[in-house]
Amino acid sequence: MSKFALRSLASIIVLSFLLSCENEYSEVGTDFINSIEVQPAYESENVIAYSEKHNSIRTNGFRNLLLGKYADPVYGLSEAKILTQVNLSQTRPDFGENPIIDSVVMTLPFFSRQVQQNEYELDSVYGDGSFRINMFQSNQFLRELDPGEDGDFQDNQLYFTDQLEEFRPNISTDTVVSSQVIKPSDLTEPVILFERNEEGVADTLSLSPRIRIQMPIEHFEERVLNASPEVLASNTAFRNFLRGYMIEAEQQQPVLSMSMFDLENEDANITIYYRNETEEVNDDGETEIITTYSEFALNFNGTKLNLYENDFNVDLTSQNTEEGEENIYLKGGEGSSGVIELFSGPDSNGNGVSDELEELRSNNWLINEANLDLYLNEEIATTSKNRINRVFLFNLDDEEVLEDFIRDPTASDNNPGQSRQVHLGPLREDENGDLFYRIRLTSFITNILNEDNTDSTNVKLGLYVTNNVENSSLVRTRNPELGISENVPRSMMETPRGIVIHGNRSADQSKRLKLRIIYTETN
Questions:
Q1: What is the pTM of this model?
Q2: 519 exposure class (CB count in 10 Å sphere: 0-12, 13-18, 19+)
Q3: Terminal C-alpha separation, the chain
C-alpha cells in the first residue's frame, strides 16, 4: 500500500473517530472524558401533574382572532365571536362633491401559503363545515383606558373572553349583513379582482384566499360619507359615533368550521368604493361628465375582542394537587392548561426541600441531559383532531420562559413551526409507535441541582398547547379554577384544539410522566 493510501486511510479513521465523538457529545454531553463513567439514566417518579381550567382570559390586544364553532371530541363545543371597533384609514377625509357609492366590501384574508400556481394551502382553518357570516351593529363602548377606582385612567382597559352576556344588551339583534354560505376549506384558489384606478381603467389582481362580503351601501353612506365633519375629525370621535360590530359565523349544521383571521392585516378592512361625477366644458364648448373613482377603508386596528360560548365537557373542578392526576387536559382558546411539579416527594426534615432533591444535590452530578416525555393518551383522545404538533412550557412562579428556551440553538422567528425543537420537541413516535413530546430541561435541572446557582429554586411549570412556540408573551386570566395560573401564553389563544397527556398516576406505567436525567459522576 502506498504512503498516500496509508495517510488517506489514517485520515478517514481519525475523521470517523471525531465524528463519532461529536455525535456522542450532542446526546450525552461530556461522557467522552475517560476518567468519568456514564451511568444509567436516573428516573424521578416524584413528579405530580394536574389540570387547570381557564374560564376568563384577557382578549383585547390581539391581532389574530378566531371566528366560528369547533367541536372537539374530548372537550365539546366552542364558539368564538368577534366584537370589533372600526377606524378611519384617514381622518378628515375629503370625499369630493356628491360622492356616489358603487359598493362596500368587507374582506377577511385567511392565513395561507401558495403551494403551486393557482393553488394555496390554508392555515388556521379547523373543520370542513360551512357558515354564513352575520354582522350586527354594536353600541358597546370599548374604552382604551381603565378609569380605575380614583378615575385616574392610568392603566389599559382589560376585556375578557367571558363578557359576551355582559355586552349582549348593547348589540343590535338586526343584522347589518348576512353573507352567502361560505366553506373555508374549499377556498384554496386565488381571488381574482378587477379594480379600477382613478380614471376608471381596470387592473387585474390575483390575491390570496379571503372572504369578501358585499355590505349594504345605505348603512355606510349614512355612517361614513354623510357623517358630520366633527365625527370624521378623529378616530376617537368616530369610534364614539360608530362603536363597532359583532361578527359571528352561523353554522350550517351538522359539520362545523372555525377560522383564525389577522384583523390587522392591511387587506382586512371594510372598503367603500365610490365615484364622483363632475361637469366640465371641453374645447368645443360642450359639457362633459367626468367620472373619477376612489375608495376609502375602515380598518380593524382599534379594540377587538374574541368572545366565547363554551360547552366544556371535562370536569376539572376536583384536581388532586397533592398526588397528581391520571391525565393532563390541555385545550386552546378559552381552555385549560397543565401544572407540573418536579421533586415533589417527602420532606422528612421539613426544610421545604424534598429528600430526593437534597440527595441529588449532594451527588454533585454533571447533568448531560434532562427530559420530560409527555405521552398522548390515545385511548381518551382517539382522533386526529387531538394531535397537535407543539406544546409550550414555562415557569409559572416567575412567569417567564425557561433557560432551555433561551439557549435553544434552533430558535427561529421566521419559521416558528421548526423553532425551539431541542427544548420543545414536536410530536413524534417512539419505537413502539406511541406519540409523545420530549421536553428538554437540561439547563433548568442543572440550575435546580446547583445550590450555589442563584436560579436554583424548584418552581411549578405550566404546560399549554400552542401553534407558535416563538410567541412567549403572556396574557392575564381571571378566576382560574385552582387559582394558580394568573397568566397564560398568548399563543394558547390562537388555536381551539386540545390534547390529553398521560399524567403521573396514569394506569399505563410505561407512559407515566417521569423526569429522566442522564448524568456522569464526578466523584
A1: 0.88
A2: buried
A3: 47
Grid cell at residue 191: 381571488
Surface-to-core class of residue 507, CB atoms within 10 Å of its CB (0-12 exposed, 13-18 middle, 19+ buried): exposed
SS3 281: strand
**67-104 in b/e burial notation, b at 16+ Cβ within 10 A?**
bbbbbbebbeebbbbbbbbbbbbeeebebeeebebeeb
- Residues contacting 257, CB < 8 A, separation 6+: 68, 69, 125, 126, 127, 128, 129, 130, 131, 183, 184, 185, 249, 251
* C-alpha span between 322 and 104 (Å, rounded): 59
Residue 172: which of 133, 134, 218, 138 has the closest Cα? Answer: 138
Angle in degrees, 0-180, between the axes of helices 355-363 and 442-449, rounded to the nearest 10? 90
Grid cell in block for residue 327: 391525565
How far apart CA 207 and CA 214 sit, in angstroms, is 17
Q: Is 433 left (phi over 0), alpha (psi -120 to 50) or beta?
A: left
**Rounded-to-integer distance, Cα 103 and Cα 465, Å:** 42
Parallel, antiparallel, or unpaired for β 64-72 and 76-84?
antiparallel
Contact of 232 with 89, CB cutoff 8 Å: no
Distance CA 313, CA 226 (A): 49
- Asked if 276 and 292 touch (Cβ cutoff 8 Å), the reply is yes
Strands of 377-432, DSSP E: 390-395, 428-429
419 vs 280: CA distance, rounded Å: 62
Q: Cis bond leading into 496, ω under 30°?
A: no
Give the span between the Cα atoms of 502 and 166, in whole angstroms.
38
What radius of gyration do the chain's Cα atoms show?
Answer: 29
- What tens digit of pLDDT does each residue of 249-293 get? 999 978 999 999 999 999 999 999 999 998 777 777 777 888 999
pLDDT tens, residue by residue, 101-129: 999 999 999 999 999 999 999 999 999 99
| Cα gap 239→316, rounded to integer Å | 40
Rounded CA gap, 80 and 173, in Å?
17
Question: Judging by DSSP bridges, how do beta strands 487-489 and 474-476 pair with one another?
Answer: antiparallel
Mapped onto helix, strand or coil, the DSSP state of residue 418 is helix
CA distance 328 to 324: 9
The Cα 135–Cα 132 span in angstroms is: 10
Per DSSP, the chain holds a count of helices (H) and strands (E) of: 7, 32
Q: Which three cell numbers stand for residue 199?
A: 380614471
What letter would DSSP give residue 320? -
Q: What whole-number distance in Å separates Cα of residue 20 and Cα of residue 17? A: 5
